[in-house]
Amino acid sequence: MQNIRTQIQNIRPELPVSMIQLPEGHSMNDMWINYGTDGIVELLQNPETEKAVPTLEIHSDYKISYKGKTGTFYAIGSLPMDLGNLRVSLQIVEKESQKKHRVKIDLFDFTSVENQCREISEKQGFDGNLLEADLKQFTDLLEDYRENIFNAEMNPVTDQFSEKELTPQAHEKAIEFLSKPCVLEHVDKLLGQSGIVGEEDNRLLLFVLASSYKMPYLMHGLVQGSSGEGKSHLINAIADCMPQEDVMNMTRITSKSLYHYRDKELMNKLIIVQDFDGLDEEAQFAFREMQTAKFLTSSTVVKDMQGNTRGKMKTVQSHFASLIATTRAEVYYDNMSRSVILGVDESLEQTLRIIKAQNLKNTGHSSTESEQHAKQLLRNCMRVLKSYEVVNPFADKLMLPLEAKMLRRLNSQFQNFVSQIAILNQYQRKKDDKGRLIATEEDVRKAVEIFFSSIIIKVDELDKSTRQFFENLKGFVRSQPNGTTCRFTTREIRQELNISKTSAFKYMQTLQELEYIQAVEGSTNKGFKYVVSYWDNMEKLKAKIKTDMGSQLDQLKIS
After folding, report:
1. Which of 42, 156, 203, 481 has an alpha carbon within 20 to 30 A of 303's alpha carbon?
2. What sections of 425-489 are H helices per DSSP?
3. What pLDDT, in 10s, does the model give residues 111-131?
């Protein structure tokens, strides 16, 4: 009954809630049968009202008040964070005359409180007993308030979101959702409903990566793309679909900060880094170590209780998944190898989809309620998922393309990805005698389908943005009268593809360094003309890899 009252007050706090106590051994049906309408009306006229609970009024961090029987008590200034004392500057405003009396007092010192109450009652005419009772109540409230602040600072992870969102009904609904066939298809629809426009190849992949943050198979995503193409928007949208009590959204990480987290403060977290340029070289090193080793150790200097200087090992445990955005993935080679690489969709079609969604939102036709409902359901699904070890009986039946770079880590990431898909389907998967989930052929097929774009990025020598530029460049050259022998300048390409001078220069320089294009005419002063010197066929390679993976998947049925 108390839970129902709490839920009603959370939904409609302005409504007064009273309780009716039925006679012992009776239900509402019995009351209706035995006493009729008059008995029910009489019962409703005598509700139990809740006694007023004394509370503090927080005006600011430096002013807290409490209304007592003798007057209003104000604690002025910041409270001491030493839990062993409660020395405050106290302002007492009389109830009748509104006179103000100011004292400095340690509310934990019983003798001092008694003396102050006696002195104030003699000089100002207060009732000494009531004044002392008010001060005791004020002390209890201040002590609870201070302990809550201290606990919030020492343990920043709270259940405020989960308590509010994961009601018993929401818990049941989340399990029902995860028990449906084709869970990932339903998740993908919710991601689209949550406000992510397009990005069908990336959004489900990113969601699976992010969902691994409290599971045994941690994964990390690195989203690359040109400036202004929606990298941060994409990873933030995925983060909004995760339980907010577990998300750490960072713009910048200083060189030493990761070493100074408390022992388990980075356990079971999803870390969002808005731009990897926000990490200096030492922070990148620490971040890599936490991804790989799952802990950081540092030898530091401390003073013991006698004041002597000595060395001490400080360890920070970590267990987190991460989503990072960057415009320069190739610069962070060591970090790239530890992450699943994705590229945002920079096509004109995606731009038009985004513009349409923006315009629709500004007209007021898009439903924010629908977006919030989708996000909340996905968050609750993550809250009800349990951590399991996974056995994949098909792990040795599938081989990734040998052309892929960093194949050892890519294979490990793919196997973890299969395991995470099995975990997302845990309400539909069998367990072995050791309590481990058993991955199915369907999990492997779905993993290949979703993970395929990341495999191609690892096979391709060019990153996703440069690849998109090069394909557009080849299309432009083929459309010219001279065909594949056409010579072009950077300015012509910049104007044709409608990109900035900085982006065009970066892409052209990369393609020249990798010998995809070659300068054949001109000078530094007058500018160069280029030709495409290497006509690769990425679509053909994609088709070959897809066919090869498909034939391996077909063998799973036979075996």
Report:
1. 156
2. 441-459, 464-478
3. 888 888 888 887 777 777 888
